[in-house]
Amino acid sequence: MTGPKHPERDALDRLADALVEDILSTPDEDILAEFREQGGDAARAAADMRALFETSVIAANKRCLVAAKAGAAASRRSAPSAFALRAPMDIAEARRRLHDALQNPQSGARLTLAARKESELSDDDIRGMIEDLEDLGILPPDDGADGKS
Questions:
Q1: What is the pTM of this model?
Q2: pLDDT greater at residue 141 or residue 117
Q3: Where are the alpha helices (DSSP H) in the chain?
Q4: Domain residue spans of the chain
């Protein structure tokens, strides 16, 4: 849907486009010569603009840092309640539990094919899969006392 037509606004837009095109098509030397004629110091103006740009970048980076710190603090505050700390897991017991889960017809049908090759998985992969299966309720949680569920 288009709004009402504004011929005056359209004319101003065309004038602005023409002025921008004129400036962009003017050679740099012509612009610098005109700037010097008006008493400008090109090197000083460039240094001022660089300093302004750097100040803007630093301010933006500080805002990002403040936001990141706030996010990290919020994550730390919510992490203990969101993720229970787990006791170290015996890898032999973890491999046995994963193997048993894969052999169980009730849980095996719900596991992906990637999980079925437990002999090729690293210890960290096994531990991660056991934790995931516990979180999903496929395996009962390990009480951690004797390494058995």
A1: 0.37
A2: 141
A3: 7-25, 28-37, 42-82, 91-103, 105-108, 123-136
A4: 35-83, 91-136
